[in-house]
Amino acid sequence: MKRRLIWVSSALLLVLLLAGTAAYLLPVLSAYSAKILCSCVLVADREEASVWAEELETYASLVSAEVDRGEGLVTARALGLFPKRALYREGLGCTLLAGMSPKALHAQIPINPREGLTAVRAIPDTMPWPVGVDSVALAAYLQSWVEEENSAEPVRTRALVVLYQGKRVGEAYGPGFGPDSRMAAWSMTKSVTQALIGLLVKQGKLDPEAPAPVPDWTGDARAEITLDQLMRMSSGLAFNEFYFGHTDATRMLFLRPDAGAYAQSLDLAHPPGTHWSYSSGTTNILSGIIRRQFPTHEAYLRFPYDSLFAPLGMTSVLMEPDAGGTYVGSSFMWATARDWATFGQLYLQEGVWQGQQLLPEGWATYAGTRTPTAPEGNYGAQFWTRATDPASTQYWPDVPEDAYMCLGFEGQQVVIIPSRQLVAVRLGQALPESRWWSNDFLKGLLALLPE
Question: Does the global pTM surpass 0.85?
Answer without folding.
Answer: yes
